[in-house]
Amino acid sequence: MKKSYLKLRRLYEDQGLEREELCAMAHIPTSTMCDRLGAPETAGTWRWKEITALCRVLHIPQEKIGEYFFPAIEKGETA
Description:
Blueprint lengths: L5 H9 L4 H8 L3 H9 L9 H11 L6 H5 L1 H4 L5
């Protein structure tokens, strides 16, 4: 089974960050991040403040937000 949010996971790993470091930098509790990354991509569990914080830390441009946080929509899948 494919891990949810694989592209987002790879991005922070490629930047040399551990999940705990990313959470601290984005001011998101580790338990919240684990819940979000473990949820199905179609669940829509991200809050806009979390997305904004992660985009700032990971330097994700606005036009790429869908690729990282809403990949099912990008692929044209439905719930």
